[in-house]
């Protein structure tokens, strides 16, 4: 059996690894000219943890995990408001989850898959044709490839989805926010190792995260009804120019960043994830968004379960895809609903609403409440 996978991100590489382990021949095509790293820190757990364990990459992922010793909330001028300690953070995460940089998940998957999976960088799919026996794709280099399955794991703006399922606007649900993330060249002196600090004010959030090995991620997220078509630097300077603390340093660092992720936050609400021998995976299929905070876990877990379904049904790809979707869709839709709920309270413009949304966090830093939370999660574990 042969699969072509569009996209060499977390979902695509996880699918490549899992299907190679099942004995499939794999070809991955990736639009970018080379691998990209960085991104923001995520909590990895749930079905992603289970899938990583089954695929044998869990130890390598845990080696890349980082520990947040303190989560500090600040005023716009940088003055400290309150903090949540590392013990409380760890207690709420449980035993089968950990913090890791998105780029490090991708790196671990790449290292595990690279020996069995050819990847054609700088290549896209320009046409798709299929019948009952095979799917054929035309690539941007002129090559035509045939396979038993095409997996569209090419992200929020999936070209595979556009070619087979229809234009993006048919499925896109805009969340009214924009995000920018990049890796800083060095950790600023004002951010202790192992600390994440954030500022929320007037519909804007800024965070700086120490993500292990001396690396630091700068994160900007803010409410907007506009499409991000201009310069990230110019727009972020306009939105965040009056903030203090380390924000000016983060804005200056944008000028020298190796790469910047800058896009509107949106979900993909796709009524069916497969058409014939073409299936969508990861953000191309659902994109739960950072508001739900489960995208990387869902991508790895979804890829693992897809491989398992294909193994169970052998050459019956259509039946396997239907079974897989029935298994994964409830989890993805639950996280999408969570993301839509969180959207309403993320970076509120009203200062009273901001205080109310942060009240539970503020209370968790108070001794008696902190101990109650820790005991609650220990009992659940």
From TrEMBL:
Superkingdom of the source species: Bacteria
Annotated ranges, domain FAD-binding: 3-310
InterPro entries named in the record:
FAD-bd, FAD/NAD-bd_sf, FAD_aromatic-hydroxylase
Spell out the coiled coil positions from the record.
Answer: none
List the protein's name: FAD-dependent oxidoreductase
- Organism, per UniProt? Microbispora maris
User: Lineage of the native species?
Assistant: Bacteria, Bacillati, Actinomycetota, Actinomycetes, Streptosporangiales
């Amino acid at each position: 059996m042969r699969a072509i996978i569009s996209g060499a991100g977390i979902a695509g590489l996880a699918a490549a690894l899992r299907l190679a382990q099942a004995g499939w021949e794999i070809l991955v095509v990736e639009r970018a000219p080379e691998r990209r790293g960085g991104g923001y820190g995520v909590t990895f757990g749930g079905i992603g943890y289970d899938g990583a364990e089954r695929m044998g990459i869990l130890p390598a992922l845990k080696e890349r995990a980082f520990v947040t010793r303190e989560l500090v909330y600040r005023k716009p001028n940088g003055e400290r408001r309150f903090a949540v300690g590392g013990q409380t953070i760890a207690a709420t995460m449980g035993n089968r989850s950990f913090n890791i940089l998105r780029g490090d998940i991708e790196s671990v998957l790449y290292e595990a898959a690279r020996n069995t999976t050819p990847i054609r960088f700088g290549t896209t799919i320009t046409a798709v044709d299929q019948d009952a026996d095979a799917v054929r794709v035309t690539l941007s280099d002129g090559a035509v490839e045939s396979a038993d399955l095409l997996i569209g794991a090419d992200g929020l703006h999936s070209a595979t989805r556009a070619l087979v399922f229809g234009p993006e606007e048919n499925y896109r649900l805009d969340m009214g926010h924009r995000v920018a993330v990049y890796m800083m060249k060095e950790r600023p002196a004002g951010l202790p190792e192992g600390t994440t600090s954030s500022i929320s004010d007037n519909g804007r959030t800024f965070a700086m995260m120490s993500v292990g090995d001396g690396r630091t991620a700068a994160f900007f997220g803010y409410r907007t009804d506009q499409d991000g078509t201009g310069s990230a630097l110019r727009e972020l300077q306009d939105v965040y120019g009056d903030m203090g603390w380390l924000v000016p340093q983060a804005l200056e660092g944008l000028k020298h960043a190796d790469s910047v992720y800058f896009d509107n936050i949106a979900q993909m609400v796709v009524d069916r994830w497969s058409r014939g021998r073409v299936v969508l995976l990861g953000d191309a299929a659902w994109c739960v968004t950072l508001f739900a905070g489960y995208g990387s876990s869902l991508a790895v877990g979804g890829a693992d379960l897809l491989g398992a379904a294909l193994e169970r049904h052998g050459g019956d790809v259509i039946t396997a895809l239907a079974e897989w979707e029935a298994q994964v869709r409830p989890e993805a839709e639950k996280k999408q609903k969570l993301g839509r709920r969180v959207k309403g309270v993320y970076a509120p413009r009203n200062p009273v609403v901001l205080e109310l949304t942060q009240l539970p966090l503020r209370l968790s830093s108070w001794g008696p409440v902190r101990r109650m939370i820790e005991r609650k999660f220990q009992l659940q574990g």
